[in-house]
Design a protein that fits this description.
Blueprint (H helix, E strand, L loop, with lengths): L2 H15 L13 E9 L5 E8 L3 E3 L2 E15 L6 E16 L2 E17 L5 E18 L4 E15 L2 E15 L1
Antiparallel strand pairs: 1-2, 1-9, 2-4, 3-4, 4-5, 5-6, 6-7, 7-8, 8-9
Length: 176
């Protein structure tokens, strides 16, 4: 069995066993959340630590502003010759209704890309740029959530070669 059908089966099992009456939490104080996710390409992924501020009621759900520290790593566009790693700080707004959450985020990130030159040596460049992304999450329990995210990360490999890397990732988070 390949990785993708196995992952899909796992998600369906989690959704089937999830407590459907999980409601949007109207927290009165902030919470810390940590998570990690992997992309569908080998070796790409991200990890984050977030502080979620007090929830604000909004149109049948709650809006939860957050501040996140995030780290990224991977190979650009699946090319093992061009790799990147970086970290960033971003603000996010999460809209929770029932067990589902939709989120949008933006911030600044610092990445270091490295590319293999024609002579076989590697060179790398650093880049400061804007990070942004969208995501959705499903609360399996009051503490655990499954996430599907899209993130755009700015990278520079060498000289003038700049790129933005799109990461589509699936992962888990834990709310403390």
């Amino acid at each position: 069995m390949s990785f993708h059908p196995l992952l899909a089966s796992l998600l369906l099992a989690l959704a089937a066993s999830a407590p459907w009456p999980v409601q949007a939490q109207t927290q009165e104080k902030g919470q810390v959340e940590a998570g990690a996710s992997r992309t569908f390409r080998e070796g790409d992924g991200k990890a984050w630590l977030a502080y979620r501020f007090a929830a604000l009621p909004f149109r049948g759900g709650v809006a939860v502003p957050a501040l996140e520290v995030v780290g990224y790593a991977g190979a650009a566009h699946g090319d093992a010759r061009r790799k990147f790693a970086g970290a960033g700080l971003q603000g996010a707004v999460n809209y929770q209704f029932d067990a589902f959450t939709l989120s949008g985020r933006a911030g600044m990130g610092y990445t270091r890309g490295s590319g293999k030159r024609a002579d076989g040596d590697r060179d790398g460049k650093k880049r400061l740029g804007i990070l942004y992304g969208l995501g959705t999450a499903y609360a399996v329990t009051d503490n655990w959530s499954v996430h599907f995210d899209w993130d755009r990360v700015p990278v520079r490999y060498n000289g003038q070669q700049q790129a933005t890397v799109d990461l589509f990732s699936l992962g888990l988070s834990y709310r403390f």
